[in-house]
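[09:14] KT: can someone run the structure on this one? pasting the chain below
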Amino acid sequence: MTGSQKCRVLIVEDSKTQADIIRHYLTQEGYEAEWVESPASAFLVLDHTPFDLILTDIVMPGMDGYTFCHLLRKDPRFSQIPIIFVTQLSDPTDIIRGLCCGANNFIIKPVRRDQLIREISLVAQRPNHPASTRSDSDRISFVYDGHEYLISSSREDLLCILMSIYQTAALKNSELEQTTRELNDFTSHLEELVEERTQALSVTNEIVEHLLMQRTDLITRIGHDLKTPLTPLYAFLPYLYQKESDEEKKEILSLLVKDVTVLKHLVDRILKLSHITLDSFSDMKTSADIHLISLEVLGNHSYLLDQKEITVKNFIRPRTCIRMSHFHAMTVMENLISNAIMYNKDKGSITLTCEHETKQQVLSIQDTGIGLTHDQIGRVFDDFYKADESRHDHSVHGLGLAIVKRIIALYGGTVSVKSPGPGCGSTFQVFLPDTDTVSESPPVQEGGHHG
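[09:31] RB: done, structure tokens below
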């Protein structure tokens, strides 16, 4: 073989994709390349076509590359053909087995064009010393991992393989350094990008905070502007109603008193909602007796409970405290209980509990009322949302649960609702960080219409 133009290469590879890549590289360099998919097919081709070099895979169906190489070295017709293994194997034992079979070199997959051409050129231009003509004394004894191997490959082949391994390692190291530089550049760019985004986010947060402050100020001003004319109306209309003797005028005044009362309560709730922020209270470590608060709220609603014949089961133990101010705890309980009464059915029931669960306290208010759909569950805590729009009850503003959500969030807690569906009742649950202040008193059930 005097040059690549006259070198014929046989490719033994069960993967057509890999074979096509290798054959493409070789033909571009002027080599004549032919592909077969198995060692058995290779022997049939070798019987009638001479080849100057064989590239073979190791792991193949049927006969593997080791057996194929061993049989070639034992056959005088093919023993002098250089053999290069093309493989993904990286275990040293696999390389040693190839050397014992008389392989001339190795090329590691994925095959690189420059490496392929370089290794083929080195093997093709070197005089061959076939393993079949070497005596045992010419073979190199090598012990690895407690096993002795007889290396059939020549010393020239071993030096060639050593250089190939060094070149491959150097190439991998160069690629690793390049990848490291690219990664460092990317990391530096990413840090700059993160800093830019952080600054942009900071500006955005300032804008959002400013808009929220403007919204709060606007709501507060509107609330106060509405409250100013409502206050005398709320005070004097009941007085006029009591003094009026004309039944027709009294009926009109009664409607006015009712509407002004509803409007005043709405304004009060809007103002309360706008001021529920972290700045609205300072004592985060305060606690409230939720048992006493529940009794007070239930007592305030005793008239409605009796009117709808609702049974209350209060399982909140005496001296049960939660990490919340008395005012906020009263507001939460008032809204949840009034909601459970308003949307409950006649002769229904309300169940109250407050228990420890995994470093948190869970306050539950369960009712047997109209229930909620999946869509309503996702919206029930929104401002001004009403679960039952069909009632046209103007005294219901849709702010109670929104207020509850905001108060609970200030204490690092959450509030959720569960409902099997319309007509199946609802369970509202408040989750607050545990205070470890609940006494071990046994549960007390409050019977009757209210507890």
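[09:33] KT: thanks! The CA atoms of residues 13 and 19 lie 6 Å apart.
[09:34] RB: yep, looked fine to me
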